[in-house]
Amino acid sequence: MIALxxxxxxxxxxxxxGMEEGLWLTDAAGRVTRHNVxxxxxxxxxxxxxxxxxxxxxxxxxxxxxxxxxCTAGEGTRLELQLEGLRPRVLQVSVxxxxxxxxxxxxxxxxxxxxxxxxxxxxxxxxxxxxxLRTPITAIRGYAETLREGALLDARxxxxxxxxxxxxxxxxxxxxxxxxxxxxxEANELQLEAVRxxxxxxxxxVLEVVRQRATGxxxxxxxxxxxxxxxxxxxxxxxxxxxxxxxxxxxxxxxxGRVKVDGLCGAERVVVSVQDTGLGIEEKYLPRLxxxxxxxxxxxSREMGGTGLGLSIVKHLAVAMGGDVxxxxxxxxxxxxxxxxxxxx
Length: 345
Description:
Elements: E1 2-3, H1 9-17, E2 22-26, E3 32-35, H2 37-43, H3 61-72, E4 77-83, E5 89-99, E6 105-111, H4 113-148, H5 158-186, E7 195-198, H6 199-216, E8 220-224, E9 230-233, H7 235-252, E10 258-265, E11 269-276, H8 298-303, H9 310-320, E12 324-330, E13 334-342
Parallel strand pairs: 1-5, 8-10
Antiparallel strand pairs: 2-3, 2-6, 4-5, 5-6, 7-9, 10-11, 11-13, 12-13
């Protein structure tokens, strides 16, 4: 309960309008007598609120009932208000009786939209990690038990089982490494050192890493980067970005396809593009490609050994270096991932 005391109306208005939280005061009948500026912004209210019961302009019966209880029974209530529309919000509301001559109530509104979003991100992240870990762990455990129960002496099947265990262990290791890398990036713990990075040299070094897999699929590489193309960025981070993009390009390009690396140099920015002749991606999926664990085709991605974190790491690294990453794609034609980085000073 709150008492207004001898606070003057001018001072009270100044205090209320200076608050970040939304607040209203009502009379004994639950009609709003006063509110601050923040309240109308939080509720997207373009109409007059004074003199009206919240039931008339907020489509939330629990909130209206809480106001009635505070005015008639002197009971306080805490609840959450979900606001839909172009800018959905979650407001934590505390409704309390107001102690002064004539009675009434007051309600305090606190915007917890970002907090709830982060809670959902954390919950989804834990669920996704658990799901991704379950598959290799189940395979390793299953084949290890089979070997322990006698299959180890089976000269025909034992080597295949051991090979599966090894590949699943590698997949598990890659997932853990990607998780640690992403965690360091999101916590701003990765120390990046900006230097002059020759992009053609960095690309050629990365190509040597993916060349064996590309050769097996007879994929042809083209590098159209001038010797003068340079970025002002962290050399290791640039190579990791290129490695993830080129590895994906090889992974999703069919036998006999082509992967091309282009570059555009400007006075302040340099753009490196990795273009493939792979499966392509429908436009509706493109906005979510850089989310953690997001896959367009979950079954196919896992079959190819992806962790679902590579593009998210690319996005974080590019942003951490003062750049960005984008994608264009046409199903059946291929995809182009473009990384923008600062040019040398």
